[in-house]
Amino acid sequence: MAEFDVDLFVIGGGSGGVRAARIAAGHGARVMVAEEYRMGGTCVIRGCVPKKLFVIGSHVRQELTDAAGFGWSIPSATFDWPTLIANKDKEIARLEAAYTANVEKSGARIAKARAVFEDAHTLRLSTGEKISANVVLIATGGAPNHGAAIPGLEHVISSNEAFHLEQLPRRILIQGGGYIALEFACIFAGFGSDVTVVYRGDNILRGFDEDVRSHVRSEMEKEGITILTGCTVTGVDKHGKEYTSHLSNGSSIASDQVMFAIGRHPNVANLGLEKAGVAINPSNGGIAVDHFSKTSAPNIYAIGDVTHRFNLTPVAIREGHAFADTVFGKRPVQVDHADIPTAVFSQPEVGTVGLTETQARAQFSHVDVYKTSFRPIKSTMSGRDTRVLMKLVVDGTTDRVVGCHIVGDTAAEIVQAVAIAVKMKATKADFDATLALHPTAAEELVTMRTPTARYVRDEAAE
Ligand code: FAD
Q1: Which distant-in-sequence residues (6+ apart) come within 8 Å of 72 by Cβ?
Q2: Substitution candidate for ligand 1 out of 46, 48, 321 with most atoms within 8 A of CB
Q3: CA of 378 relative to ligand 1 center, distance in Å
Q4: Can you name the residues that pair with 11 across neighbouring β-strands?
Q5: I need a labelling partner for 351 at 20 to 30 A (CA). Which of 125, 132, 370, 456 fits?
Q6: pLDDT category of residue 144 using cuts at 50, 70 and 90
Q7: DSSP letter at 216?
Q8: Residue 462: is its pLDDT beyond 70?
Q9: Quick check: CB of 286 below 6 Å from ligand 1?
Q10: Closest Cα partner for 316 from 283, 340, 284?
Q11: What pLDDT score does 440 carry?
């Protein structure tokens, strides 16, 4: 009789957990996955996928308006929120079923239950079942932060609820300056809501390139979104169906919905981690892991958002795959976390890979910056007041392109391809040797010949 019920027990059926379970089962392991909510996890159920569907739907407004300049006259269009929600729910249910089927097809067993540790090798399920496992993978993801306990916090929704609102709010206040806050701001504005963004810092998109931050802000403001920086929501009152948000700057704002998107925390609470000997990383609150995603307990691993490293779906998937190959495939794989491309699906969207100008200047003695901002060809006829930003950051010593930042339609699609070149350590000369594809916005990436700024660090002054 086998010493353990299963070779691998995966806690969490999200992006990372599902990939790890399928690959480990493919390597011949006996695998069980516990999921307490819905298979697919955050990305599929209440993250990337429904968010992108909302982005696509809300962008139609701009397409309709822009059409006039090209000769189209469209009778006044109407939008039905319940239809959007119902169709989105149908698609998410389809994906959830596909995730379930794929895990089962791989030979892994799914337990629709919450799992917690009894000890390093024993899991207790909310169904009452106890399972012993040789190896355990924690892939429990993260959840929205609620922030400080302000009066009226119970009236505030997070992105989780934003996907299920019964009606489109006529006015919405969103607190937060990160990608989730801005994506929802643009989504609601696109569907016709009056949107106010409140952010405590001096500008939105902290951590992004400074030019990207100011460009996105000005583009969102041009679309009618109010962005208030340097203040926070200190309380929310409810009167009937309306809310009044009180701000730290002394003003107050009325709206029909108040949403906070002020960061996410790893799901580490009440998992029994202490009983299993799994330590938390004090610097980020996630589970502490080594380069192979191994925790402080020798038979327990953790991947994805619960480690709070790079909270993105492709990262969780890559980490899950690497874990399964390392532990069950006899092929040790470390995930390379450098040059991860990311996007903000604001309108216009952001695509970025590599270093910001600030990071590059801190790292390299010589930095060349190539930057351009221009009216996209479509707006010459649509009349839309919008500009595209493209920026390349180059290590002036090696000529290597170390950062690419784009704001504009399809920026994310463009950057996915540029990321290959950056990962391959392409130089600016390689970009220059590539012929332009005309007429596109992306051709600017290979036609920017003269640096807009050139920085040489004064070593003597340091
Ligand atoms: P998750 O996908 O969160 O899965 C964890 C699973 O574990 C959940 O299903 C949860 O129910 C389950 N669970 C937790 N505790 C237990 C337990 N004790 N027992 C059983 N089950 C448990 N990333 C991108 O790359 N691109 C995007 O555009 C993007 N957009 C996003 C938009 C929003 C609004 C949000 C919230 C996130 C977005 N993300 C995006 C981030 C992405 O969703 C996450 O990085 C990704 O889902 C992490 O995968 P994971 O496997 O670590 O965790």
Answers
A1: none
A2: 48
A3: 36
A4: 34, 138
A5: 456
A6: very high
A7: H
A8: no
A9: no
A10: 340
A11: 97
User: Is the distance from the beta carbon of residue 42 to the nearest atom of ligand 1 less than 6 Å?
Assistant: yes
Rounded CA separation 317/17 (Å): 8
* Domains of the chain and CATH, by start: 6-144+265-327 (3.50.50.60), 153-262 (3.50.50.60), 342-455 (3.30.390.30)
Q: Please tell me the distance from the alpha carbon of residue 147 to that of residue 175, in angstroms, as a whole number.
A: 10
Q: Is 346 in the pocket of ligand 1 (CB under 6 A)?
A: no
| Ligand 1, atom 24: closest residue by C-alpha | 312
Q: Is 394 in the pocket of ligand 1 (CB under 6 A)?
A: no
Site of tokens 């340097």: 230
Residue 404 Cβ inside 6 Å of ligand 1? The answer reads no
Cα 376 to Cα 385: distance, rounded to the nearest angstrom: 10
**Cα of 96 to ligand 1 centre, how many Å?**
13
Q: What percent of the chain has pLDDT over 90?
A: 97
Please list the active-site residues: 438
pLDDT tens track for 39-65:
999 999 999 999 999 999 999 999 999
Write the CB contacts of 26 (distance below 8 Å, at least 6 apart in sequence): 106, 324
Q: How far apart are CA 77 and CA 429, in angstroms?
A: 48
Q: What pTM, to 2 d.p., does this model score?
A: 0.97
